[in-house]
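Narrative progress, year one. The postdoctoral researcher (J.K.) led the effort to move from monomer predictions toward full complexes, under supervision of the PI. The following entry was the first complex the group processed end to end, covering 226 residues in total.
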Amino acid sequence: EVKLVESGGGLVQPGRSLRLSCEGSGFSFDDHAMQWVRQAPGKGLEWISSLSWNSLSATYADSVKGRFTTSRDNAKNSLYLHMNSLRVEDTALYYCAKDYGGRALDVWGQGTLVTVSS
Amino acid sequence: EIVLTQSPGILSLSPGESATLSCRTSQSVNNFYLSWYQQRPGHPPRLLLYGASTRATGIPDRFSGSGSGTDFTLTISRLEPDDFAVYYCQHYGVSRYTFGPGTKLEIK
């Protein structure tokens, strides 16, 4: 079974940091670019980051650029999102997703909830 | 930056009817990079169609997509109870993904 499992979410104060993890299984993790997408409560989907299979190319949405960094460890089939200088507006369910040929996202995790509040 | 607009915002229909959902892009895009997703409450999004009209694995043929340029359509025939959900279109370009705001398909 192809699966993605996120972890690391929680309640954090504004200005603090948090690291999310996403572990993949059932597919060749190192063959695929990976994405982070978030969804604020009751809102739509917002793409926030993309990382190539070899970590050589990373892109970020303007809303998180300079504050969030994506990395991966292919030996551990894992993707990470390092979030710094968190803001209240970063409160959301964070999904990792498997890239399908650079055109769609064909596998999604269940998400991990990040709440930024004092 | 390409902006995606979806209409209607909310669509109220009954089981058995057909649904037509629209996605418009702010500039012409390559069909190859246009996809549709379904999101049921409490669940992650699920890929329905990619390349504007190709069904993802396991998606029934009641779901179909069409369109080109700036106007794309998702059609769902013979609506079933599980089809009532939010639908998003999405475009990939310049190393980033952009989602539309979604159309909520609700039971009338």
